[in-house]
Design goal:
The protein is α/β, with parallel strands linked by helices and 453 residues long. The protein folds into two domains: 7-64, no CATH class; 117-383, Leucine-rich repeat, LRR (right-handed beta-alpha superhelix). Helix content is 21%, strand content 22%. The chain has helices spanning 38-45, 50-58, 94-101, 118-126, 145-151, 174-186, 188-198, 297-300, 321-327, 351-354, 400-413; strands at 10-14, 19-24, 30-33, 78-79, 106-109, 135-138, 159-164, 206-216, 231-238, 254-259, 286-290, 310-314, 335-339, 365-369, 389-393, 419-424, 430-434, 437-443. The strands form two sheets. A 15-stranded mixed β-sheet has the order 4-5-6-7-8-9-10-11-12-13-14-15-16-18-17. The chain has a three-stranded antiparallel β-sheet with strand order 1-2-3, with no helix packed on it. The longest helix has 14 residues, at 400-413. It is globular and about 70 Å long. Its main location: membrane. It is found in: Membrane. Keywords: Glycoprotein, Membrane, Signal, Transmembrane, Transmembrane helix.
């Protein structure tokens, strides 16, 4: 291969007779690359997307039959629930298993019904088959509690994401719903066992836990041992207790806390004074609080001295004006999203409250969902001189004449505004342009995921 040809200029052409891999040089000359040695194919494939690689393997070309070699997939994630050597009854030599696991960095478990052999996983962990793994993702994790206990002993895992679903669906009858709820509660023992074991994974820098049942915050003691965490997201815990266990996580840069989850709100509110336990977390740049009601300046004060650039307050009901005053002191903010739904008892802020945000001169994205009544109140935010994206939510779809009354003041208040999104519960999705301003209309209800950037 010509050393001057760039790997990024590789293109693929498929036809019925053959598969041709071409590299195109800057002067337009091309070279046909077929039947390359394995080491050269490996260099090429490392630059391909997963979909391009799949296309190569599906062409059926005899010249490419050796692309099934594990050598070519070591940079991709491995589905443990699909790999036969993790199951009893499948005869794989140790050499073959090592070839598939060599340099593998990500393991994924998606299928809760997969009967992965704990015995085989334990053997592979103990004998270094999986020492290259740095990233683990496990869905329906209560089904794989024993397997995860083995994987927790791996020496180099940096990132762990575990999810457990099974919430009742809307169309189930009462008996089925009660059965599903009982099933969720029955998972607690397995979930509590898993999170206790996670405390031994002291090499973790990223931890993401999402449960559809609610675990007591008293079980968060395992966090005390994870002092290297830089990213922490927990959803599905009763945070009316347990926040104090995060005091020593001084390396945290991203913190995402949800009190309860989408399906269940704990009986007791979070005591905002507990957030004072986080006052020493000085490296946080991204903060997401969900379900934290009655926030005031006390709850937000631990984060004022941080260099927070991204702040999300989601379904935080009855926040006070003092909360806005504290946010106004977070002068490094690039994005601020206050997200509520029509079901929430959201605070209503007037211009005399919103003016606290005028110190956020670096803010580029702002979301205000159901927290103001009159669009004219936004005219007080002339200090947001860098604002480019504004997301607003109203209780009713906006009529054309109302839209014009909103847009003109916004353009004069925010001179760099380039995108305006307007949400309502029954809104119809469409978009239009007003000069350089792009305007999007869409519906939004509790639980919806929306693009705010």
């Amino acid at each position: 291969m010509d050393d001057e040809l760039s790997i990024r200029d590789i293109s693929m052409n498929f036809d019925d007779d053959d598969t041709i891999i071409r590299t195109v040089s800057e002067d337009g000359d091309d070279a046909v690359l077929t039947r390359l040695p394995s080491h050269q194919w490996k260099e090429i494939i490392d630059f391909l997307t997963v979909e391009d690689f799949k296309a190569l393997r599906l062409t059926g070309s005899k010249a490419l039959h050796n692309l099934t070699d594990p050598l070519f997939t070591s940079h991709l994630q491995l589905r443990m629930d699909k790999a036969s050597f993790f199951f009893d009854g499948n005869n794989y030599s140790e050499q073959e298993a090592r070839r598939w696991l060599s340099k593998r960095t990500r393991l994924v478990i998606n299928d809760g019904n997969a009967n992965i052999s704990t015995r085989r996983v334990a053997y592979m962990v103990q004998n270094g088959f999986l020492d290259s793994v740095t990233d683990i993702i496990a869905a329906n994790c209560h089904c794989h509690s024993e397997v995860l206990q083995q994987l927790a002993m791996l020496p180099n895992v940096k990132s762990l994401k575990i999810l457990d679903s099974g919430a009742p669906s809307d169309d189930e009858d009462d008996e089925g719903e009660q059965s599903s709820i009982a099933s969720l509660d029955g998972n607690l023992d397995e979930l509590e066992t898993i999170i206790e074991v996670i405390g031994n994974m002291t090499s973790l820098t990223s931890l993401d836990i999402e449960f559809d049942t609610v675990v007591s915050g008293s079980r968060l003691t395992f966090l005390r041992r994870l002092v290297n965490l830089k990213y922490l997201r927990i959803r599905g815990f009763d945070l009316s207790e347990g926040i104090s266990n995060m005091t020593g996580l001084t390396k945290l840069e991203t913190l995402h806390l949800c009190h309860g989850n989408f399906y269940s709100s704990p009986n007791d509110d979070v005591n905002e004074k507990d957030l004072m336990f986080l006052v020493g977390l000085q490296h946080i740049t991204s903060l997401h609080l969900e379900g934290f009601d009655c926030l005031s300046g006390v709850g937000m004060s631990p984060f004022v001295s941080n260099s927070i650039t991204d702040l999300v307050l989601k379904h935080c009901e009855e926040s006070s004006e003092d909360c806005l005053s504290s946010i106004g002191r977070m002068t490094k903010l690039k994005s601020l999203h206050m997200i509520n739904s029509e079901c929430d008892d959201a605070p209503i802020f007037g211009s005399e409250d919103l003016h606290h945000l005028n110190t956020l001169s670096e803010l580029k994205a702002l979301s205000l969902f159901y927290v103001f009544e009159e669009p004219g109140d936004l005219s007080c935010l002339k200090g947001l001189t860098a604002l480019e994206i504004l997301n607003l939510a109203y209780e009713y779809p906006m009529e054309d004449e109302e839209l014009e009354e909103v847009i003109i003041p916004l353009l004069s208040t925010f001179p760099h505004l380039r995108k305006l999104r307007i949400f309502s519960p029954d809104g119809m999705a469409y978009s239009l342009n007003n000069g350089s301003l792009e305007i999007e209309f869409s519906s939004y209800s509790f639980g919806d995921l929306v693009d705010l950037h």
